Amino acid sequence: VLSHNLCTVLNVPHDPVALEEHFRDDDEGPVSNQGYMPYLNKFILEKVQGNFDKVEFNRMCWTLCAKKNLSKSPLLISDEDAFKVWVIFNFLSEDKYPLIIVPEEIEYLLKKITEAMGAGWQQEQFDHYKIALNTSREGLSAWELIDLIGSGQFSKGMDRQTVSMAINEVFNELILDVLKQGYMLKKGHKRKNWMERWFVLKPNIISYYVSEDLKDKKGDIILDGNCCVEALPDRDGKKCLFLIKCLDKTFEISASDKTSWISIQTTVNLLRAGSPPPHKEARQRRKELRQKLLAEQEELERQMKELQAANENKQKELEAVRKQLEAAAARAAEEEKKRLQTQVELQDRFSLELEREKMVRQKMEEQVAQKSSELEQYLQRVRELEEMYKQLQEALEDERQARQDEETVRKLQARLLEEESAKRAELEKWHLQQQQTIQMTEAEKQELENQRIIKEQALQVAMQQLKQLELERKEALEQYEEVKKKLETAANNTKSWKDKVAHHEGLIRLIEPGSKNPHLITNWGPAAFTEAELEERQKSWKGKKATSE
Predict the structure, then answer these.
(1) I need a surface site. Which of 89, 97, 482, 534 has the fewest CB within 10 A?
(2) In this structure, are residues 57 and 9 in contact, taking their beta carbons and an 8 Å threshold?
(3) From residue 425, how far is each of 116, 439, 492, 549 by CA, in Å?
(4) How far is CA 150 from the centre of its chain?
């Protein structure tokens, strides 16, 4: 029965043999394992030519689904009006299943109905309803739309007849493509008398009837690109005269105002341009605008995700740099520990040598004690030399301590300079990032404002750290100057003692500490670096120079 009715409404010949053949494998129920949809697509929908009554087809579909889905609560609209709202929903709904009508299309439909009723549009009321709707779902189903219009929420103060007429007017415009309708006078072709007719303007045809009930149709005016509309001067008491010239006939019509023939001329122009009806073109533009906004929103979300990913990568890089700094600090501490251990070993070795020297000196004193009185003057001179030797040891110790202090201050200053360079590079990098951020579009500025504030705070913190490093560097320079002065004083003392010892060189030869490595002179003074340290620093300078280039 369903298939036969579909074929009748769609003007498709019904083939009962194909129906029986399609469902022959099912002996237990009315629908085979293949389902009804393959049969519907293959034997009915593929044969549709488009020359069927779409209203009757919609009415059949309405009959199939209305009883099951239509709300049982009383509505302010009739079943016929509910059917028209259902058909309008199918026209305005999105092209995806399950069908829904988005808030923008709901606003468009309610505005059309309100304008047809002659009432004022309550934008604030709809905005509150739209906010409540967006929090729960993307749109309304057909039955929810019928409940919304039937509840009278947006038609308060209007009677059922006014609402029904408004729905019918919107239905005629959106579904039946009625661009304009009303009474006009038409001049007959044979009697040449003027008769009042009810004209209905559609995109490609003008139909005229005896009255507005559309029961007695008198004829059609077929519109195409060859038609034209010409205005005529007023005569015989008739105003707003115009001609509709077609290929086979010419129609002379008198209207109550000029908007009638202007609407007809606009329709002819649309036919010549091959454009769709205004309401369909407007629906397509609204749909394209929604798709564009959705694409822009998706693009914005994608950019936000990229920015978030970039931020996470920066955090990872900072964490890696922090770990590298910690590892470098650990290596430096290990090297300092090894250096202290080496220094202790050298001090122990030097103490042993001093102990052996004391033993030799005691033996010499025992031998000298056994000598005669003529050697008393010689012993006195030996005692003076021993006293000078002790003072020379103290001077050497002061010089060694001064050199150690100078080395410590020099390393501290080098570390501060490296940290200052790293901070300056980081500040320049943040400054470049801020300049790139400023060049972004105004839409991106609003989204990145919070990140800019965070970076500015980080920049301020870095500036404070840089100032702190500057102060530490100045303090290190002051310490370096003090140590340098001490070193110069110790060197002068050592030189004066060496001059004094030179007079007694024939009696005793002093043991002086010295290095087996070649004598190195740098900008920090003599022997400020070992040869290994100079090679390491030269490699570091070459690497930094290659990176900057």
Answers:
(1) 97
(2) yes
(3) 69, 21, 43, 14
(4) 42
What letter does residue 241 receive in the DSSP assignment?
E
Q: Which two tokens stand for residue 425?
A: 């590079």
What pLDDT score does 543 carry?
81
How do residues 448-462 score in pLDDT, each as one tens digit? Answer: 788 888 888 888 887
Q: Are 87 and 58 in contact (CB under 8 A)?
A: yes
Q: Which amino acid makes up residue 245?
A: K
DSSP structure string for 489-505:
HHHHHHHHHHHHHHHTT
Structure-block tokens of residue 140? 């309304």
Between CA 507 and CA 509, with CA 508 as vertex, the angle to 5 degrees is 135
* Average pLDDT value for residue range 282-309: 85
CA 541 – CA 545 distance, rounded (Å) = 6
Task: Return all residues near 242 (Cβ < 8 A) that are at least 6 apart.
Answer: 229, 230, 231, 232, 252, 253, 255, 260, 261, 264
Contacts of 40 (CB under 8 A, 6+ apart): 3, 6
DSSP 374: G
Residue 499 to residue 509: CA distance in whole angstroms: 13
Tokens for 247?
């290929």
Helix (H, G, I), strand (E, B) or coil at 123: helix
Do 203 and 270 meet the contact criterion of CB atoms below 8 Å apart? yes
157-178 pLDDT, tens digit per residue, is 778 888 888 888 888 878 877 8
The pLDDT tens digits of the residues spanning 227-238 come to 888 888 888 778
- Look up residue 14 and give its amino acid: H
Structure tokens at 499: 């001059």
Q: Which two tokens stand for residue 224?
A: 């195409």
- CA-CA distance, 307 to 285, in Å (whole number)? 32
CATH no. for 180-276: 2.30.29.30
Taking the CA of residue 38 as centre, how many other CA atoms within 13 Å lie in the half-sphere pointing to its CB?
A: 10
**For residues 366 and 379, what is the distance between their CA atoms, to the nearest angstrom?**
11
How far apart are the C-alpha atoms of 44 and 430, rounded to whole Å?
Answer: 68
Contact 412, 469 (CB under 8 A): no
- Other C-beta atoms lying within 10 Å of the C-beta of residue 223: 21
% residues pLDDT > 90 (the chain): 4
The rounded distance, in Å, linking the Cα atoms of 511 and 349 is: 14
Nearest-Å Rg of the Cα atoms of the chain is: 52
Q: What are the DSSP calls for 456-490, one per residue? A: HHHHHHHHHHHHHHHHHHHHHHHHHHHHHHHHHHH
For tokens 């468009």, the residue is 108
- Give me the DSSP letters along 386-402: HHHHHHHHHHHHHHHHH
Packing angle between helix 79-92 and helix 54-69, nearest 10 degrees?
A: 110
